[in-house]
Design goal:
heterodimer; A: alpha/beta; Rossmann fold; 2 domains; two-stranded antiparallel ribbon; B: alpha+beta; Arc Repressor Mutant, subunit A; 4 domains; four-stranded antiparallel sheet; three-stranded antiparallel sheet; 19 helices; 15 strands; about 10% strand; DNA repair (chain A); metal-binding (chain A); nucleus (chain A); DNA damage (chain A)
């Protein structure tokens, strides 16, 4: 399998809050691009897709439909890699817009993962001989997360698990329980780095190897996974919640009616009272 | 185990080839980004990881730390194979002088990535440094060539070399003396007597059945072996070849700044169809698909020239070949009998006789089957397996037929004085694993040649007691 090459789909977080630390932006982006380059350089058959996500949209940075080719080599570097960089940089410029209103919402990472999965699936169906594409997804996330995309996340995780595509997650700064679940479900790695400057070395150490080679290398022991679910009413992670017996929706407090499937819960005690009490 | 002295054609991959070079040559090779990247790509997966992990680490890394890269022991998991792979991955890097063994400031044994290699690999992947010589600026070419043209040109050139192999007598004029010299050197053809009468060898037949990428790589390897005789520098040629292999198809490259040596080399590559030059003075060349990823050799068949498969194989051992190319028909007739020729198609059949004929020439069953698989018509790819199982199995059986006898070199021990002596020696031999044959009634035994000295010593000691 090692010789068959691997499709790496990188999901890069481009939340505007990134721009707050000027020095980090450069390090962060160049680490991501360098890692993409290393992946392509490591094997002739390796392929790459880069999807960026900010709070407003997700966008394919590479590959591009309209590929403009570089005229000549500018330095002693592989020409193909130059083209990859140019494509990514060009799209980045289009995408990064300073938006002061953006601080509440989080990046649309789950949507980007979904597009990545679709891209993998398309590559598979486009192959004439119906060959299995060895693919994996790598999510690099820097923004803080809220539980608002909980359902979307879980859906993409289960899809990834179903098409046996490992989902690797590298988080910068604070731990992200939601993404950790995804890595755990789909059989990928999860790691959290403290500083942006450590990012590239960490990516190389942990995420460069393909699935087969990984088994032959040592990895840091996995942390316990935070499997808390987000409630459907306020999108916050709950330790203990109420689950709808009909559709398994999670609520942080008891409700008389499931907002997802509209079923009315029949209980012997009047529910409204309890709700009122809490208020 | 192979019998009757037939040799299978072995094609070294790039890694084996580089390991056969001297440290000095390797050091000079690593001075260019292109070679570093080519070398890096062909390493085993684990070795690649080892290099990448140290790519940004400038200080020597102690061996103790490297040992922690092996996966931790878990119950019920056998780590023996993985440990062996780690050792092998390390050994490759040390052999190729990419890793150097040094002592760190505590005096412990440590490993450092070769500085030249590190710097140039970084340049190749992440940028920096100077552009490669062939990438000098060029005006747009008035005679721009497209990919289709280059593919056709390359295939025509390459097929003329193959054509010469199939019918050495006729194609004398078709290929240059240089190509012929390489073929002779590679042992693909031999001149039967003093006259110029060439004849294809058993290796030559096996060569013909390889896929194009492997053929080109094998041919270039052999060419490189003779390169110093031609007065060219091996390092310069290899470096150029690697640069070429990373170029982009359908793009023109400049000949500016190339010295006479390289220009000669370029001319040779032109003869084999690896590059296209409109004329010598045009100052630019186009690499063809044959030159791209040349280093990938056998590992990566799919970057082959896109060729329409043309063989339809039926379970009744008939092959329908939709081709008009003399070369393809000649290749088919190596192992099958032609039954009928039509304007656009040839019908042949595989039989015991025809396959045995091929086997006698030294071609293996596996090679025939892989040839059939490579050239199957797209329709055939819908079947699984692509080549009908009956046909593939039967060809293998026909090969096995010829290998009923197994030859082993050995030393015969006989005329033992007593049964005790005999059993003592035969027990010792079998415990060492060197016993090939023993017969108690006749009191004879045969041990392998390797085991002979040990047995002799043991016997002498036993006698002395």
């Amino acid at each position: 399998m090692a010789g068959d090459g691997c499709l790496l789909v990188m999901v890069v977080d481009l939340h505007p809050q990134l721009a707050e630390q000027e020095s980090n932006v450069h390090n962060y982006l160049s680490a991501c691009i360098s890692f993409a380059n290393i992946h392509l350089a490591a094997n002739v058959k390796n392929t790459l897709a880069v999807i960026a996500a900010n709070h407003l949209e997700t966008r394919f940075l590479y590959p591009q439909i309209t590929g403009k080719t570089v005229d000549r080599q500018k330095d002693g570097r592989l020409e193909l890699l130059c083209q990859v960089d140019e494509s990514i940089e060009r799209e980045l410029r289009n995408m990064i817009v300073p938006d002061p209103k953006a601080d509440q919402t989080e990046s649309l990472i789950s949507g980007a993962i979904g597009r990545g999965l679709l891209y993998i699936k398309r590559q598979e169906t486009e192959d004439v001989l119906g060959k299995k594409v060895h693919a994996r997804i790598l999510v690099v996330k820097i923004s803080l997360d809220t539980g608002s995309q909980y359902l979307n996340y879980i859906n993409t995780y289960l899809t990834a698990q179903k098409i046996s595509t490992p989902l690797d997650v590298c988080v910068i700064g604070s731990d992200c329980g939601l993404l950790q679940q995804g890595a755990d479900i789909s059989g990928g790695y999860y790691h959290c780095v403290q500083e942006v400057s450590e990012l590239l070395q960490c990516l190389i150490l942990m995420y460069q190897a393909d699935v087969v080679t990984r088994k032959k290398l040592n990895v840091p022991p996995p942390d316990s996974v935070d499997y808390r679910a987000a409630c459907f009413c306020h999108r916050t992670l709950v330790d203990m919640g109420n689950v709808c017996s009909n559709c398994l929706s999670v609520y942080c407090k008891a409700v008389p009616l499931c907002t997802t499937c509209n079923v009315i819960f029949q209980t012997d005690r009047p529910l409204m009272k309890i709700v009122k009490k809490k208020k | 185990m192979s019998t009757f002295g037939t040799q299978t054609l072995t094609c070294k991959n790039l890694q084996d080839y580089l390991r056969s070079l001297t440290k000095d040559v390797l050091d000079r090779l690593y001075r260019h980004p292109a070679t570093c990247l080519a070398v890096f790509r062909e390493l085993p997966e684990l070795s690649k990881q080892f290099i990448l992990r140290l790519l940004f680490v400038t200080r020597p890394v102690p061996q103790v730390l490297l040992a922690t890269w092996k996966p931790q022991h878990e119950p019920g998991k056998d780590l023996g194979d993985i440990a062996a792979e780690h050792r092998q991955g390390t050994q490759v890097l040390l052999d190729m002088a990419i890793w150097q063994e040094v002592n760190d400031h505590h005096g412990n044994l440590a490993i450092r990535l070769s500085n030249t290699f590190r710097d140039n690999l970084k340049v190749a992947i992440l940028g920096g440094g100077k552009p490669w010589t062939m990438s000098a600026a060029l005006d747009s070419d008035p005679h721009q060539r497209d990919v289709e043209f280059l593919d056709k040109y390359a295939m025509d050139r390459w097929e003329s070399v193959l054509q010469f192999l199939v019918q050495p007598g006729q194609g004398q004029t078709a290929i240059s003396r240089d190509a012929m010299r390489t073929l002779l050197h590679a042992g693909l053809i031999e001149s039967s007597d003093e006259s110029d009468n060439m004849q294809i060898t058993s290796s030559g037949f096996q060569f013909l059945l390889l896929d194009t990428a492997s053929q080109v790589w094998f041919f270039i390897l052999k060419y490189l072996e003779t390169v110093t005789e031609r007065g060219l520098s091996l390092v310069a040629c290899l470096t150029f070849l690697f640069k070429l292999s990373f170029s982009i198809l359908g793009k023109d490259y400049s000949m500016e700044g190339m010295d006479n040596e390289l220009l000669t080399f370029l001319q040779h590559l032109r003869e084999f169809g690896l590059v296209y030059l409109r004329k010598r003075s045009s100052g630019r060349f186009y690499p063809t698909r044959l030159a791209l990823n040349i280093t990938a050799g056998q590992n990566k068949g799919n970057i082959d020239v896109p060729k329409q498969g043309y063989l339809v194989i039926e379970t009744n051992y008939r092959i329908y070949a939709y081709t008009v190319s003399e070369l393809q028909i000649a290749l088919l007739s190596i192992f099958s009998d032609i039954e009928g020729r039509f304007p656009n198609m040839v019908v042949t059949s595989v039989s015991r006789g025809s396959v045995r004929r091929a086997l006698l020439k030294g071609i293996g069953a596996e090679q025939i089957i892989s040839f059939l698989r490579q050239h199957c018509h797209p329709q055939m790819f819908k079947n699984n397996p692509v080549v009908p199982r009956t046909v593939a199995d039967q060809i293998k059986l026909w090969e096995l037929e010829r290998e009923r006898l197994e030859f082993n070199e050995g030393v015969l021990y006989k005329d033992f004085m007593s049964v005790h002596d005999f059993s003592l020696l035969s027990n010792f031999a079998s415990s060492k694993g060197v016993l090939i044959y023993s017969d108690e009634k006749q009191r004879t035994m045969v041990v392998t040649k390797k085991g002979h000295p040990a047995i002799k010593l043991f016997w002498k000691e036993a006698q002395a007691k």
